[in-house]
Design brief:
alpha/beta, Nucleotidyltransferase, domain 5, five-stranded mixed beta sheet
Length: about 290
């Protein structure tokens, strides 16, 4: 029997195939989101899942998938399950939000605060066995402090030079952003921002982390950390408990430096930074669900 765990995000999808004893395959595929009412999202989901199925090269017994932008209506949820089931026929399916999956992987049946920052940002906890979320509003309404927001702030730093018709210093954050977007004019910036998927903007966060000793990068990362800490503060206000352990995870948590340092100071004694493989955890959840019948 084979158990597949999928951690599907707006920037990339991680997957792990487990045979009950060990991992037999793993990989990275394209982004997936749950907005299947949009033709491009539906097509992307189908093509990415088909890629994963072809790379598994085995009949999958059970799947646990965490999906960003998971369907809110019963109709969309049923359609999502139908798409997955059509690509993995015969497999038992468990469909969760990406945040719910991350919480279960890190806390199991215990209670804590999950601070998750990938392309977007959200904090959550369990109250009376129900997952309570703060933030996670999407890049148009929120997600401050996460990958897309950091990447956008890097572009805004470049825009100061664009407005002045000046070139940034060679080797600077702004210079490397200009090189990545292949230009430093307003026309170049517009083409990059409005001609690409938001995952391309989120990817610029890595440039910011790569310049974390530069003043403009420090400003961006410390501001990101303050936004993320505020999510935890809002969870604390809801629960009335400031002693719950906090786990910080997601792609943004992997950038050591000003961001993580600020969070460690602000949430001293409570926070743990986790690089646990959520897709691997999902595969083990699929195995557990299968064993329980």
């Amino acid at each position: 029997m084979y158990f597949l765990g999928i951690d599907a995000g707006a920037s990339a999808t991680q997957w792990v195939l487990h045979d009950g004893n060990e991992i037999v395959a793993r990989g990275t595929a394209g982004p997936i989101d749950g907005h299947i009412s949009r033709p491009e999202s539906r097509t992307r989901m189908q093509s990415t899942l088909m890629q994963i199925a072809s790379e598994c090269k085995s009949d999958v017994t059970a799947i646990t998938i965490g999906l960003t932008g998971i369907a809110e209506t019963d109709k969309e949820r049923a359609e999502t399950l139908q798409i997955i089931g059509g690509i993995f026929p015969g497999a038992t399916l468990e469909l969760l939000s990406d945040i719910h999956l991350a919480y279960r992987v890190h806390f199991g049946r215990k209670t804590g605060v999950l601070l998750y920052a990938g392309t977007g940002a959200v904090a959550c906890t369990k109250i009376n066995d129900e997952l309570v979320r703060v933030g996670g509003w999407g890049y148009l309404l929120g997600d401050e402090g996460a990958g897309y927001w950091i990447g956008r702030e890097a572009i805004r730093a470049l825009m100061i030079y664009v407005d002045r018709s000046e070139k940034p210093a060679p080797g600077s954050l702004e210079d490397d952003v200009a090189k990545t977007i292949e230009g430093s004019t307003w026309a170049d910036v517009k083409q990059f921002v409005y001609g690409n998927n938001r995952s391309e903007i989120a990817a610029l966060a890595q440039i910011v982390f790569g310049h974390q000793s530069q003043e403009s990068a420090i400003k961006i990362l410390e501001s990101a950390a303050k936004h993320l800490a505020e999510l935890v503060n809002r969870v604390d206000e809801i629960t009335g408990d400031i002693s719950l352990p906090v786990t910080f995870t997601g792609g943004t948590s992997r950038g050591e430096g000003p961001l993580n340092n600020y969070l460690m100071q602000h949430l001293a004694g409570r926070i743990t930074i986790s690089h646990r493989d959520i897709a691997e955890g999902a595969a083990l959840l699929a195995k557990e669900a299968s064993s329980q019948g």
